[in-house]
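Hey, quick one: can you model this chain's 3D structure?
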Amino acid sequence: MNKNIYFSIIFPTNNRAVDVDETLSQIQKSTFRDYEVIIIDNNSTDNTFEISKKYNFVRYFKNDFNNHVVSARNQAIKKAKGKIIFSIDDDSFPSIDAMEKAYEVFEKNQDIGLISCGIKNYKTFKNEINSKKEYENDLNFRETFTWSGCGGFFRKDLYNKYGPWDEGCMHNFYELLTCLWTLRDKKKIYNYENIYVYHKVSDGGVGADLRGNDAMRIDEFYANSFFIIKYYDYIKLIKKMIEILSVISCATIEQRTTVYLKSYIKLLKNIKTILKSRKEYPSEITSKVRLSFNFIGK
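Sure thing. Here's the predicted structure for all 298 residues.
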């Protein structure tokens, strides 16, 4: 393994050996070589371990239980040697020159803390992978206040200074929290369309089983509400929670489900614990991040 690590590529996985193999195979083709890949295996029962051993740039760690997405990513970063964390999923991978371009951006712009990657649908753009179409010299960018864990770079110093990510939920809000860290550190967040990843949205593993079901919706609602209570100033917090209560009341009636009500009750039961751990961010920072309740149709 290369000792001059610049990027630590991290992802958790669970029973997606085929996806992991393709992801690692594509990473191996990168035009930039100073990287490591840290895999946190959340107790897979397939041949993920055997796959990982095919690649000498991989550091593989296996849990004997499912530590879920955020906790596993925390594990990975604590083991990371690179100065830049490159977060992907087990079913996503960068274009050939994505790391080379990201390296150039970070080295030339010390005020940039986070790069939000462009995301291309794997099925739609499959034929262009490893082709000349991947090489786009112009770096088109715009300021943003969001990113996806399936494709994003950020300075490890931000994590060291403000981390770790909260582990109160299965999937949680680690992307939003990283944006808060970046803004608090007076650094910028940019989306670069030509620094991109291909994303499959795999049908395998526990993640696919949870996608879109009641357990996922409960967790997402709880995570977003947790985020508001823990990080918003009290005035904005009260306004937002009243708004959320109105939204779930409508969603409960329209969708004829008690899912969101159950999640709200869970939130109330844990509110004292959340309040004790509050880390209030200025309103001018929290107002910039995009908090969405689209999973309940709002």
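One thing worth noting: The longest helix spans residues 234-255.
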